[in-house]
Protein 1
Amino acid sequence: MSELLKYVTQKVMSRNECIRALRFDAVGVGTICAITELNEGRVAHGDSGSALVVRGYIQIGIVSYGIFTAKHIAVYTDVCYFYDWIEAVVKELNCIT
């Protein structure tokens, strides 16, 4: 585990691109796939729960798992898809006043 915060630049893939690349249909609704285009790194053990961020600060995904192939594809939980559920749970837990 690194003491420094690391990041990798990825490109969000369409669901069909992801299914073709992974060769299985386990990529359901509520997920986002992203690929590391440059050989600069990948999602690794211990990264689960990390954010997929666009424009520097907008979180659109949460790391679910990575596929360890030459393509370095990561599968994320789609925050927008689950937004209403997240909001309801947060309110129920009294995290928002």
Protein 2
Amino acid sequence: MIKVIVDSGSTKADWRLFDDESVIAITTPGLNPYFINSEEIASIIKEQVLSKISGFTPVAIYFYGAGCGAATRKQSVMDALMKCFTEATVFVETDLLGAARALLKKEPGFAVILGTGTNSGYYDGANIIKSIDSLGYFLGDEGSGAAIGKKLLRDYLRGYFPADLHHKFSLVCPMNREMVLEQLYSKPFPNRFLASWMPFAIEHQSQDIIQKIVRESFEEFFTGLLMHYEGIEKYPLCIAGSVGYLFRDILAETAKDYGIRIKISIQSPIDELLVYHRLY
């Protein structure tokens, strides 16, 4: 029997089509229903997934996605998947449950996503039973790629970067204040735009100002979200997402300051999700 697992963030979605013997990997743009509607989701699936798996008929689709916490958004994704996979049973859950299943399998603990956006919650070994709303990139998403990118752009445009770093950033971001604000307020996917500067931050994370920006973002993540979970100090954190993984040293140092230990950090949960669904 062929099944499909999807781990979708706001920037990209990882797909695994699998049976007992083989796996097909596909990557598409993120399918966050807060930024694209059901018809657009279905269009991406038809163009970038179905075109590559003709001849295969999945019996089950397990979709774990950013933006799937609200019932109406979850239904939007469900409708698109059911339109594209007419013979499959479709399950749509949050990306946080996917991360928890990937990181913890059947064990209880705290799961965290630090990618383009942020998510966190307590997992009892089966379900997420407590999660503080990250509120998206406008109001929250502390510690995320969007949050770090916002601080990075802010300090660059205000002239706070040292001269050599300012010059290097100007080469990858040849945009003035007006162009940046237009991108943020008038163009689609502003969260992706903010997070798109992560490669620069990662490459130059030895610079004091970059370390300050990243650490400040992680401190806001702990003070604004994690430290409000009762009993958080009893469990080591399990973290998924490129931001948490690629800045894992700064994250571990910040966590230590709050009496928190990090157990594991992975860049993407998709392969461990595959392990989970083959086991259970």
Protein 3
Amino acid sequence: MINKRNQLITVDEVANILFKDDENAFSLQAIAKAIQRLRDKLEENGVSGSFIQTRRGQGYILVN
């Protein structure tokens, strides 16, 4: 995701990253939960959770 900063990363791309070894584990809810955990970790380390923006129905964007 870091390599695609300021570019849309589709839900399918995120699923391929997170669940490449277990395609049956893929769900929109699982992806949303993983992104929320990442946002929480970023905030614990002083980075705004809005660093990751949601594009409903499309995917996510990492912004500067």
